[in-house]
């Protein structure tokens, strides 16, 4: 068992790895082509006004470029999109090579394989230690189809909930 006083990065990963998150790819249309990175910190922040937040790393090469564009798309990944999540997390590769995408009406890349899309403009950004807390104002959103199973990340691994294998719990 981890000591309650050990708050090292490895302990943070081990303990918070028990919390399952969804996976998304944040994309923007940069001056030299599309930009994107994998994100597991997406959350719906506010319904009115419609806001989402996520936490890019301070050493991200992609986030400053997306920030300078000022608008972006959140591409929510479905189960089975593990390769896409890995591709957009790698450094030094053309992340969009061989990936099907199209520009949204808002001008941001929508990945064809995504289960849903949320088009945003950067609303504000806050200090978050070794990450930044980015808040996007939602300008549009859509789903690919109903019933798409989500891609999750838990215990440092990919996981999925299959609709036939899970049950909604009531409060």
UniProtKB/TrEMBL annotation:
Flavin reductase like domain segment(s): 16-160
Record-linked InterPro entries: Flavin_Rdtase-like_dom (IPR002563), NADH-dep_flavin_reductase (IPR050268), Split_barrel_FMN-bd (IPR012349)
Keywords from the named record:
Oxidoreductase
Q: Signal peptide position in this chain?
A: none
What Pfam families would the database entry show? Flavin_Reduct
Q: Which domain of life is it from?
A: Bacteria
**Annotated family:** Belongs to the non-flavoprotein flavin reductase family.
- Name used for this protein in its record: Flavin reductase (DIM6/NTAB) family NADH-FMN oxidoreductase RutF
